[in-house]
Amino acid sequence: MAAPKKGRRSPGAQGRPGRALVGILVAMVALVGGMFLSGNTTPRLGIDLAGGTSFTLEAKNEPGKPNAINKANMDTAVNIMERRVNGLGVSEAEVQTQGRKHIIVNIPKGTDAKQARKQVGTTAKLGFRPVLSIGDGKPTKDPGADKPKPKPTPTKGADKGDNKDQPKGDEPTSPTPTASSTTQGRALPSALKAPTPKPSPTGDAPTKPSKEQADQVKKAEELQKQFAALDCTTPKARAAASQQAATRPNTEPIVACDRKGEAKFILAPVQLEGKHVEDASAVYSTQGGSGWIVQLDFDGKGGKQFGKITGELAKQQPPQNQFGIVLDGEVASNAEVSFAIKGGKAEISGSFEQQEADDLANILSYGSLPLTFDIVDETTVSSALGEEQLNAGLIAGGIGLVLVILYMGIYYRGLALVAIASLGVSAILTYSLMVLLGEAIQFALNLPAVCGAIVAIGITADSFIVYFERVRDEIREGRTLRPAVQRGWPRARRTILVSDFVSFLAAAVLFIVTVGKVQGFAFTLGLTTLLDVVVVFFFTKPLMTILATRPFFASGHPWSGLDPKRLGAKPPLRSRRRPIAPADTKEA
Amino acid sequence: MSRLGSLGARLYRGEVGYDFVAKRKIWYGISILITITAIVGLAVRGLHMGIEFSGGAVFTTPTTSVSADEAREKAESAAEGHTAIAQKLGGGGLRIQISDLDTAAAQPVQEALAKDLGVQSSKINTQLVGPSWGEEIAKKAWQGLAIFMILVVIYLAIAFEWRMALAALIALIHDLTITVGVYALVGFEVTPGTVIGLLTILGYSLYDTVVVFDGLREGSKDLTKQTRYTYSEIANRSLNSTLVRSINTTVVALLPVGALLFIGGGLLGAGMLNDISLALFVGLAAGAYSSIFIATPLVADLKERDPQMKALAKRVRAKRAAVAARGESSAESEASEDARGTADAEEDADEDLEPEDATPAGVVGPRSTGAARDQAARNQPSRNRGRGRPSGKRR
């Protein structure tokens, strides 16, 4: 038999139980300490427990572009979605991809679900609109006369460069570089462009933006009024403005804010839709010291059109030689054009920080995303219900725990203390890990995860049962406790490992394959299964080894749960230390 | 507990025991019957798919005085022709489901409902689901299920053997079928929670089966070196001796789930907690049943087809016949109680009469012939008759 050999080998383990216990204690202290250090003492709660709104969006290919659903595109979409949601002034919104083609947007309580839905649910629209007028971000006092006039600096790309001015700095300081010449010569060093066109409200109004169509004069005046009233200074006002702007059709001019609220624009109808952008990327250009620039590739039609627009724009006076890149009713960037850009490729320079360039490239490529998103699931949970569900989960967990402890107590008596202590260790480890993981990997405890944790009570306790039964079997063989604890272990260990592995396999497969709530559940289940192994190996077993030396257990006290008599042990075979006639109650 | 404890001991030694394996035909019959019922139920009644799968809206209101019927009427009029289901929840709130409502159309309904019921629109919990999301969840779940089954069969085939893997798989499918059948027959609503519960059964039902199989694997070690027991008998022994363990693990697993079910159902009325725990409860119960009554007998059945085991069974039968022929008196007096629990006609061998059996008998799985005793038996064969065997003493 193999077991006795193992049994003989393992007594060496008797020297180690203390160390293992200390080890797990240190681990516990470290985890709990880490939890307190991180400043969070409760796990992050999911929407269904904390209250809030959760949207699930499904990506759909646009017709004719079958392979658009890929990781890169989804990530871009997530970035954009994050920008939009956070544009609502929500602080802790989280946006994640889920599976291959879903995006989950979680918005904590306190946000207007309706507004959020609008933001999340509408398809983003990216368009290039010629700028008609630029103003300071603040509402203008006197709408009629006072027209802000930007002083764009001459910007210059290399041959194809189309330049853009990124509003910088907050105060519209007086336009420093007055050189408004659109020189055809070599570019000024881009560095000079930096303090660029701060739209400054000087009196000199550009002529009415209604040159194009006579019958649009009225509309234009209307637009002017809107423009004057437009307030871009607060995020809330900006969100409202961009929402309004986003609803306007492409064929109409709009008023819009830039993203920082420093400038506002009147923009002509969309001349080129974002979908014609094939690719956009931020690159570091060593040429002419222009630093970070954004490179744009248009598709065939887009390239032609872009050439046409830029050709027209280049002839205009500032600021009307600019176009705005408008995403969701917000001007992501405005760029000045000095000459027609043909050939379907363009660069936007403007002393960007890397981050800015990345952002802009992102936005531009979003315009090219051949994806549309549908809301396929929307769940709003009031914080009252969330609390109720959390409480119900906790109560159920508590009751479950008490029942398990009671059952163990009745059946295993003294041994139940070991089980309770082990469950306690397991609980502490699970809790602190959940808190820490909430920080580290954005793990949020949702209702299914709570269920998983409760179900895990059973799985964890099962491991103890497997071991206890093994030990008791050994005692029934007539062994005393110490050898029984050692001999029972290798067999119990195998059973525990095999069955925990099966459990873990289920959790892992579910976590990888499935989506949504199933995933949360699988995560907890997997985590607790792993912890179960840790606890049994490094806590329960060493504890048993130590307790086996205590007279209470070793002597088989009736309340220890290890009383050989009650277990119906056979008498020791070779030596009859115990004179008690065993189990004479048994009839054979 | 002393009762239980000694029962455990007697089960362990095989003094008492239920012959699960020999009566397997009965269990197979019962299981086939249940499975057929489940399948028929599934075919005839179908599953009552929740909103999450059919698409629609679920509104949960805070405590309100409006009755469920009124709310249903209002909801139906607000949703213009869509069917609504309303139920009162434990806390006094209402849960109103409107099926086939698409996400865009649900918004006005929510507002109308809030007005009709006199609660603030923001206090209503809504869940709006397009059918595709539910399908996605279900599709992924099926994928997960298939992948898991393949992996676990491979694993069990490596850790144990292919027969056990096959038996475990059949038991697992059996559990899932029963659970799904119960859902079809009773008409419980199937939600993502149900799917989660069902998937958990995967791991759990197997946990149980694995515990039993582990005992069986150990018990059947060196089986072919003896001629006392057939594989089926050993399987039954192992089953009985791990019975206490199985029952305990199942009870302990069911207790928290039961608490969840009770709280989920009693306190919240309906929802995720309830759905998960209901599926779990049914599945766990089925799992406990199948690992004892189906999985192990199946393994025994499969094993008995193995030529080696066939030969063993033949040897065992031949030996028993020989023993019987040799006269009952001596055999009976020496009969070990080891044999009690197992086969019906377990006339144990007189080891002195069958010397070639003496050593193997010690090596054999039946755990009562533990190592210590084996040694005793081997070292001092003369003591075997009277003192060495507790059984002899007890008589």
UniProtKB/TrEMBL annotation, chain A:
The lineage of its organism: Bacteria, Bacillati, Actinomycetota, Actinomycetes, Kitasatosporales. The keyword Transcription regulation does not apply. Part of the Sec protein translocase complex. Interacts with the SecYEG preprotein conducting channel. SecDF uses the proton motive force (PMF) to complete protein translocation after the ATP-dependent function of SecA. Gene3D superfamilies: 3.30.1360.200, 3.30.70.3220, Multidrug efflux transporter AcrB transmembrane domain. The gene is secD. Residues 262-370 form the SecDF P1 head subdomain domain. This is Protein translocase subunit SecD. Keywords: Cell membrane, Membrane, Protein transport, Translocation, Transmembrane, Transmembrane helix, Transport. The chain crosses the membrane at residues 20-39, 390-408, 415-437, 443-468, 496-515, 521-540.
Automatic annotation (TrEMBL), chain B:
Residues 324-333 have a biased composition (Low complexity). Its main location: membrane. It comes from Streptomyces zagrosensis. Residues 344-357 have a biased composition (Acidic residues). The gene is secF. Residues 384-395 have a biased composition (Basic residues). Residues 111-304 form the Protein export membrane protein SecD/SecF C-terminal domain. The lineage of its organism: Bacteria, Bacillati, Actinomycetota, Actinomycetes, Kitasatosporales. Residues 324-395 are annotated as: Disordered. This is Protein-export membrane protein SecF. Part of the Sec protein translocase complex. Interacts with the SecYEG preprotein conducting channel. SecDF uses the proton motive force (PMF) to complete protein translocation after the ATP-dependent function of SecA.
